[in-house]
Amino acid sequence: MRIVAGRFRGRALRAPPGRVTRPTADRVRQALFDMLMHAPWAGRGRVEGAQVIDGFAGTGGLGLEALSRGAAGALFIESDRNALSALRDNIAACGAQAMAQVRAWNMTRLPPRGAASPADLVFLDPPYGRDLPAAALATLERGGWIAPDALVIVETAADEAPPLAPEHLLAQREHGAARLSVWRHGDGRAR
Questions:
Q1: Is the pTM of this model over 0.90?
Q2: What is the annotated signal peptide range for this record (predicted)?
Q3: What are phi and psi of 77, to 5 degrees?
Q4: Which residue in 80, 100, 152, 170 is a FRET match for 47, CA 20 to 30 A apart?
């Protein structure tokens, strides 16, 4: 796995051993960011300068790809000890320590946001088949972690139901066993 584009392009990403972490494949990240950079409802301005949350961060591939493409800062949230080690190594390998914060938190039990900036881009890539996206989104909303007009991108298994109402989807794409779903957050709920 490597960073696909931007200032960290080509940097290798280390994955933790075992099957607990399922990193988003390079080609899926490329497709996602191509969509974000060129869609009429997104564009470069949605990534460049953005505050990002990479929830269920694993290797940090989604957040690091956003930083590589001009995001201002990223909060990486991960609870697995082995994934946290790989995540910290990947941030260091990209030289992104000044733009990255890592928190060893459970995505379904987050503290309130406090003084931190709310996220303009939220990436959620939880373990498949555990119904975690809806619980994580509810926790993010309750804690004030999501900016009113943020884009929320969720990766699920292709056969899983999306965590938010399909009529509010901006885009949905399947890539092998993975499905990417994108919503715009507004007024505390997807719209």
A1: yes
A2: none
A3: -115, 120
A4: 80
